Amino acid sequence: LTSTTANLFNESYRTSRLLSAPQTGSIYLSTVSLMQPLDYEANRFYQVSVYVTERVTGGRNTSTDIVTGHTTSVRGTPYLVSVTENSPIGSLLMTVLARDGDRGVPNPVQYLLDNSSALASLFSLNRTTGRLEVASSIDRESAQIAAVYASFSLNVIAEEVSTGSPQPANLSRTTTSVRITVQDVNDVTPTFSRSAYNATVLENTVAGTPVSLLAACTVTDHDDGDNSAFDLTIVLSNGSAFDVFDVLPSSAVGTAALTVRVKDSTVLDYEATKSIEFQIVARESKTTARLSSTATFTVFLLDANDNAPRFNQSKYEFSVPENSPNGTIVGKVDAFDIDSGDFAKISYSLGGTDANKFIVNGTTGQIQVGVRADEDLSLLDREKFPILYLTLQATDGGGLTGSSQLEIHLLDKNDQRPAFQRTFYEGAAVDSDLFPNNVITYSLLPSNSSASFAIDNATGVLSVQRPLDYEALANKTLVLKAEAADGGSPSLSSTVEIRIAVVDQNDLAPECSQRVYSGSVPETAGYGTRVAELAGSDGDSPGSPNSQVFFRILAGAGDRFTLDAGGSGVIVERGADLDVNKLGVFHNLTIGIFDRGTPQLTGAPCFVHINVSDVNNKAPYFEPVTTRVTVSEGSATFAPLFQPSKTAIDPDSSANLTYSLLTNITTGRSAGGGAVASTPAYNFSTLFSIDPLNATLYAMTALDRETAQELTVQVLARDLNAATPTPVQTATGTIVLTLTDINNKPPRFLSTGSANNYTVQVSESLAPPIPINLKLQADDPDVSTVSLAYAIAPPGISQFAVDSASGQVSLVQRLDYEKISRHEFIVTVSDGLHVTSASVTIEVINANTYDPVFDQFPTPLSYPESTPVGTVVATVHAYDNDSGVFGQVVYSLLAGDAFFNVASDSGRVTLVRQLDRDVSGGDQQLLMVINVKDVNDCSPTFPSGLFTFRNLKENYQAGFEIDSVRATDKDVGRNSELRYELIAAPGQSADALQLFRVSTTNATDGYYAQLRVNQSLTGRRGWYNLTLVAKDSGSPQLTGSTVLSFFVAKADDFTLVDDEALARFRSALIGTNVILIAGCGIALTCLILMYCKYRRLSRQAEITIAAGESGVQQLHLMKRLEQQKQAGEAETADSAADNGKPSKHNAESRSSNIDAASAPPDDMSRQSLATRAPLVPPSRQEPLHHSKLKADDNLKSSESSDKKRKKKGRRSHKVDPGLDDSRSEPLNNPKSDWQLPPLSRHHRQLGRLPELLEPDADHQGDIRS
To answer: Hey, is 227 helix, strand or coil?
Structure first.
C-alpha cells in the first residue's frame, strides 16, 4: 500500500479461498482502514495505490487505485418516474433528496431544475423540499413529446448552501437526471384526413379493383398502443352494412392509408345509377370508449361501352320483284343503344353473300336494290334463289355491334322456258317459273315411228300404241321428237329427241347336242379325271345371254362326279370314293341344260352312263379284330390251340392272303391283371406259331398260367396280289389266350424275406392262451386251390399253436425268459398237394415276473442306548430270480428312518441318531420292513394280440375315425406313460403304413391309440396288417405290441345310414340339446342307444330323456339286455380286478368285427356324453317323466374289484370277449318274449336294432348298456 499520506491508511491481509468450478485458482481478501481523522476543508480527495505481488516468483504483480473523498450526494439516483398526460397542475411526480457530504456539520442543500430542456417548463422543482410537480398541461400527442417518443430526461442540480455570507467558492454541487415517461390516455379519436372524399370507377370494373380517389385518404389515432388500434368498416348513411365496396386495411394501429376496392361489380351499372354514396367508419377496437369518426365517400360511375346496339326485330322480311331496277326501295330497319354519348350513336351495314346487290343507309337504315337486275336477269333470279338471306349489323360509337337476320323474298316473273333436263327423254320437263307460268303441256312431233307411240300431254309419259317385232325391224333403234310448252303469255317451249332401243325377248329353250353320253374310269381315278364332254345350243340372238347355255348335274353324282371349270366336261370329284365293292360298277348321271336369259329357260335333260373298273387296292381286315380263346395251361406242344372259324376278309376279288405272327409284340398279364414281361426262360416270342394259309395257332412250348394267365398274340394278314405298293394291304388281328389253371405250383409264404423266416418278439408276461403278434399269410399261384392249411412242425411244439385256417399263431403255455429266451420251430402251409415250410423265431422279452425274496433277515436285536452313531445294527439280503434290471433289488426303510438308515444297495442298517432309553419315546423298536422301489420292469401290454377291423369301406377318406385301442402298463409314474406308433407287421407288406395312422390320447383312465384313415381308401380293397407298438417313457424304455388287421371292402351301392353323416352326428351329439316333436322320442332314443353301444360310448355316458304326455311315456330295455347284464357282472368284476382299474369298454379285448364307421372321436371316447332334450318347446311343455340312461356300473364295482385283487395277488390277464355281433337277436325274433309293434317304412330303414325297446307304463328305471 502506497500513498502520499501513508500515515492515514493501513492495509491488512484477511483470508483466501479456492475458487469453485468451473473457475480455477484462489481469491484473496484484504482490508484498507483509516488510521487518522480526515479534514474535508483541508483535503477533499485522496488516491491510494494497492500493489499485489506473487509470493513464489516475486516477479509478477498488479495494482489498483482506491479513490476517496467528501462531496454532496443525491440519494436514490438515477430517478425513473412516469406521469399520465393531462394530469392536473401541481400533481407530484417525485421528491428529490440530496445531502451534504460532511457528516459533522453538513450545510443545507438547495434543488434546481436545469432549464436547458424545453420540456422543463412543464414541471416545477421546489428548491427546499425537492418536490417535482406538474407545472402545466401535458399532452402526450404534442409535437415536443411525440418527437422524443413520450420519454425524456431532465437534469436536477443539488448544491450546497453555506450559512455564511458571502458564499464560498468551493461549495460542492452534484447533478442527477430524472427520466420521465408520459403515459398515454385515450383522448384522441381516430381521425380521417378529410371528412368527405370523391372517387370514380368504370361501371364494368371487375371485383377487387381499387376505385380512383381524387384525394388520398388516411386515418390517424395519435394515442399509444391499444388506444391507437382501430377497425375500418363501410356502411350506408343509415348505418346498415354495405357490401358493394370494401376497404383495405380493415384494421390498423396509429395511422393507415386507405384503399377502397370494388367488391360486387354487378351493382355498378351507369345506366341505372350514376353515383354511389357510403361512409367509412374508423372505430377503436381495443378500448372501452370505442371512439370513432366517419368520412363520406361518393363514387361516381363512369360510363363504359358495355351495351351493344339491338335491333327492334330479331328478323326482318321484305319482298321485291326479281329483275328490279337499281334504287328500288326494299324496306327500313331500326336499332337502339342504351349507352350514352358517342357510345349510343349507331351506324348500319349489310353482310352476307348477296350483300353487294343491296345498299343500306348507314344513318337511317333504309335498304335499296343496288344492282341493275332489270338488265341482267341473273342478278336477282328467283328461279335460282327465291329468298336471299342477309345479315343486318348495327355498330355503336365504341365499336360494339348488334345483328339481325334479313330475308328478301324475290317475286316471280315469266322469264323461263320449259326445259328438258337431259338430251335423252326421261318423260318430264322443268319450268322454274311459278304458277301459272310453269304449267307444261307435252306433244309428239310427226315422224316415221310416231304412229307406234303416244304421249300424255299432262305428264309426258310415253307409251306403245301397237306391238313391236324385234326380228322384223331392220333398225333396232327408233327416233321420236317431243315438245314441252309452258302456260305463260307469251308461251315458251322446247323440244327433245327420243331414241327407243327395241330389246330381244328370251323365247327359245336350249337343247343338248346328243341325248346320251358314255364314259369309263378306274376306281382309283383321281380328282379331275375326265369322263365325258357335253355340248348344246340355243336359237335366241347370238351373243346375247338368251343364247348362252350351261350344264348342271341334276342327279347321280353322289359327291363322286362334277363338272369342270368350263362347265361342259364331266370329271371325277375331289376325294371321290369309286370303290366298286361298295358302290358297284355303273353310275348314271342326269344332266340339265340352261340358258342365261331372263326369264331363264331350260331344255330337255341328257344322260351320262359311266362304267367304273375294279382295282386290287383294298386292305384285308379281321372281323372281329379281337378273338378271345380259353385253353388249358397243360395243352400239348405242337398241337393246334386255336383254328379260327373264318380268316381275314379282303374285298378285292383277286386277293391272296398269307398269315404270320408279330412275335415281338406278344404280351402277357398275370391273374391280378398286371403286365408280365417276357423272360429268356419263358419267351413269349417262341411260344406260338401260325399256319400261313388258314391261320391255325399252335403251341411250340409248354404254357405256364402262373407266369402269365393271359397271353395276347398279334396276327398279321398280307395281300400278296396288291396292285399298288401304297397303302400296304395288311391287317392285324388279336388273339387273347386265357389259360385255365392246373394245380402244379406249391403255396408260398408272403413276405418272409430271403431267409424264409419269421422273427417276432413276445413278452414272457403274456398269459396264455392268447394270440401273439404273428399271423401267417400265404398264397398259392394256382387259382384252383380252394383253401390253405397251416400247421407247426414238428407237432410236439408245446408253447405255441397255429390256427390252421387263419394262420394266427397263439401262445398256449407261459414263457420263461430265465429258462428259454429264444424259441424256434417250423410252420407249414399246404394246398392239399404241395407243402411249403418256413422257420419261426420267437424272441422272448424279459419281464419282471418274480418278486424279491429275503434270504437274510435277522431276528429283532437289542442294542444299548450308548451304541455309537454309525454302528451297523443289522444286514439284510434279498434276491430276485428275474434277469437284468428286473433282478436288481433296492432297499429302503418304511419306518424308523429317524434313528436308522438302510443302504439301498448293500442292505446294511446303520444307526444315524443317538439312542436314549430314559427319555419319553426313547425305547426305539425297529420293524424291519423293506420297501422295494419301482423300476421300469413291466412292458406295456394289450388286452389282445390281434385286433381285426373288417368293415372299412373303400369310399372312406383321410381323417376318418376307425377306433381306439388301449394298452396298460403296471408300472407307475413316467414308467407308465405310453405313446403309440405303427410299424409294418413282420413278414407283411408295408403299404398299410400309407393308409392308416395313429395318434396318442391321454385320458383319465389311460393312454389310447386313436386309429384313423390316413389317405383315401378308394381302390385299396383287401387285407392290410400292421403292428401297433406301445412304448413307455421309462429307462430303459420297454415296448409292447399287437397286430392290427384291416379289411377294406367295396363301398355299398346302397346303405341305410351314410357313414360320414353318422360320424358328423356322432361329433355333434356331445352336449347337444335335441328338441323333438312329440312322438318321435322313441326312434331317436333307439338310435342313440344302438349307437352308444356299438360305438362303445356308454362308458361314463349319461342320457336324459324327457317325454311329454303326448309323446313316449316311459322307456324300457329289452329282456335280453338285462340278462346280459346279470350274466356279465361277475366277468366284468374279474376283468376289472385283473387290470387294477375299472373296466372301460368291451372293445379293448375284442378280436371280432369292429365297425370302422363307428369309431368315436377322441373326446367322446373318454368324456361324459349328456344329452338332455325336452321333446316339446319350453313354451308348451307338459309335466315330464324322466328316464336316465346310465353307463356301466363298473365304477361302483371298482372298490370290490380292488379288494379281490389284493387278496388274490397276481392273476393272469383275462380277455373280455365283449358283445359279439353273432349274439345280437334280430328284430322281432319269434323266440324273443319282447316284440315291437309293426314298424313303418321309415322305421324299417333304421336297420337291425341291437336292443328292442317298447313303452311300459308300469316300469321306470335305469337302462344300462
So the answer is: helix
* C-beta separation of 954 from 986 below 8 A: no
Boundary residue ending a domain (151, 183, 215): 183
Q: What was the pLDDT predicted at 515?
A: 92
Q: How confident is the model at residue 741 (pLDDT cuts 50, 70, 90)?
A: confident
19-23, 124-128, 187-191, 710-714 — which is least confidently predicted?
Answer: 19-23
- Whole-angstrom Cα distance, residue 795 to residue 805? 16
**Among 151-165, 493-507, 835-849, 1119-1133, the least confident range:** 1119-1133
Alpha-carbon distances, residue 904 vs 878, 889, 971 (angstroms): 12, 8, 20
874 and 911 together in one domain: yes
Which triple of cell numbers denotes residue 461? 309419259
Which pLDDT band, with edges at 50, 70 and 90, does 1030 fall under? Answer: very high
Is residue 377 domain-shared with residue 428, that is, in the same domain? no
Asked if 760 contacts 984 with a C-beta cutoff of 8 angstroms, the reply is no
For 170, the 3-state DSSP assignment is: coil
Q: Are 425 and 494 in contact (CB under 8 A)?
A: no
Q: Assess if residue 954 is contained within a domain.
A: yes
- CATH number of domain containing 993: 2.60.40.60
For the chain, give the mean pLDDT. Answer: 77
The amino acid present at 223, given as its one-letter code, is D
**pLDDT tens digits for 649-658?**
888 777 888 9
State the DSSP H helix or E strand holding residue 569, giving kind and residue range, or none if neither.
strand 569-572
Report helix, strand or coil for 966: strand
Give the side-chain half-sphere CA count within 13 A for 444: 22
Query: 723 φ, ψ to 5°?
Result: -80, -25
Same domain? 803 vs 833: yes
**Set of cell numbers at residue 1176:** 316339446
Tell which of 740, 773, 803 closes a domain: 740
Please indicate, yes or no, whether residues 735 and 764 belong to a single structural domain of this protein.
no
CB-based burial, 2-14: b 16+ in 10 Å, e otherwise: ebeeeebbeeeee
- Cα–Cα distance measured from residue 223 to residue 189, given in angstroms and rounded to the nearest whole number: 8
User: Do 493 and 448 fall within a single domain?
Assistant: yes
CA pseudo-torsion sign 67, 71, 76, 81: negative
DSSP alpha helix (H) spans, 1026-1080: 1059-1069
In terms of domains, do 298 and 224 share one?
yes
Are both 328 and 376 inside the same structural domain? yes
| pLDDT tens for each residue of 885-898 | 777 888 887 766 67
Quote the domain boundaries for residue 361. 310-411
Cell 391287317 sits on residue: 731
Cα distances (angstroms) measured from residue 187 to each of 284, 887, 1230: 12, 123, 131
**pLDDT 10s digits, 374-423:** 888 888 888 888 999 999 999 998 889 999 999 999 988 877 788 777 76
What whole-number distance in Å separates Cα of residue 371 and Cα of residue 355? 11
pLDDT tier for residue 1107 given thresholds of 50, 70 and 90 = very low
Give the count of domains, the chain: 9
Query: Is 1172 within a domain?
Result: no
Rounded CA separation 388/282 (Å): 67
Q: What are the DSSP calls for 47-91, one per residue? A: EEEEEEE-TTTS--EEEEEEEEE---EEET-SEEEEEETTPPTT-
The model carries a pTM of 0.33
∠ CA 981-986-990 to the nearest 5 degrees?
65
Inform me whether the pLDDT recorded for 1092 exceeds 80. no
Average pLDDT over residues 744-773: 83
The answer to whether residue 634 sits within a structural domain is yes
Q: How many residues appear in the chain?
A: 1265
| 626 and 736 housed in the same domain | yes
Q: Do the bridges between strand 1185-1190 and strand 1263-1264 make them parallel or antiparallel, or are there none, so unpaired?
A: parallel
Q: How far apart are CA 18 and CA 1208, in angstroms?
A: 102
For 1231, the grid coordinates are: 323266440
Q: Would residue 1221 count as lying in a domain? A: no
C-alpha–C-alpha distance, residues 32 and 876, integer Å: 109
